[in-house]
Amino acid sequence: MEQRKATIRTACVEALPLAIAIAAYGLSYGVLATQVDFNALTAVLMSVLVFSGSAQLVAVAMLAGGAGLTSVLLTVVLLNLRNLLYGAALADGLGPAKKWTSLLAFGITDEPFVLASSRFQKVGPDPLYFAVVAGIFYIAWIFSSLTGALIGDHLDPQKFGLDLAFPVTFAALLVPGLKGKPVIGTALAAVLMALCLEWFKPGNELTIIITGLLAPLVGLFMHRRSDHG
Amino acid sequence: MVNQWILIGVLAVATYVSRVLGLTVMAGRELNPAVRLYFNYVPTAIIVALIVKQIFIPSGGHLVLSLPVLAACLAGALAILLFKKFLPSVVAGVVVGLLVRYFL
User: Fold this and answer.
1) Tens digits of per-residue pLDDT, A152-183?
2) Are A197 and A165 within one domain?
3) Contact B48 A38 (CB under 8 A)
């Protein structure tokens, strides 16, 4: 019992700083969602059912650009590929949860993965820790989305530059992750590819999917080269 | 206009399936390191493509560079590099974009 309490306390302490960051993303998501005609209910429902910052922000931004259901879905599937890695890496650590594992699976996303994988390395399997961390992030995500949606509902998009908030949000998400030649190479390749595709056919729906599929190959190539050089 | 309810349902299923597949099917398998890296680079590529599509806007069959969006992105990027805070950086970027929109 004492140990369970200690686990819960550690999980809370370690989750809190990231929960604040997640709330900031949630706030942006909520505001942006209302710009593509989501209301507070549907914006929050998406957070409740999907619980993925990257998938939701990308979906909303693509809708703003006039994308259809199929291209949004394909892009999200592509984004979700990394959940396969997370799930595979966390499987042993979540193992003792047995039948609850399929519930805990819902919490697999970037931030819980980072915290849980370092926890599992330190103390071994610990589903309770994961459950508490994911739960805190889930609550933070839902309430910040709701707050954002309620704020966004009352703002005049042009006047407050909310249309500008889409690209800026993605720029702010992108830049901190640009570390190492392969990632920077991927980003530069993506700029070129997206530009060429848009040049070839302005406003075409395939730009994001094709760039998402091909630009990482350039990163991979650069990684190989730096490995052997 | 995409039906929001269908979109939410489809994204919820697609995302949950990717999570469960990782835990069940992928668990215990040695994944090719190249595939692992590839999966990790994908979000960067998608985010960049999204930004490019918003800086270069189609207009009458041509691409037009949107200066306010470009300025906003550069300012936002610079702000997060300098101050490491997400929301203030987004606000700073938007403000710079608005200034460019109204004064240039």
Assistant:
1) 988 877 778 888 999 999 999 999 999 999 99
2) no
3) no
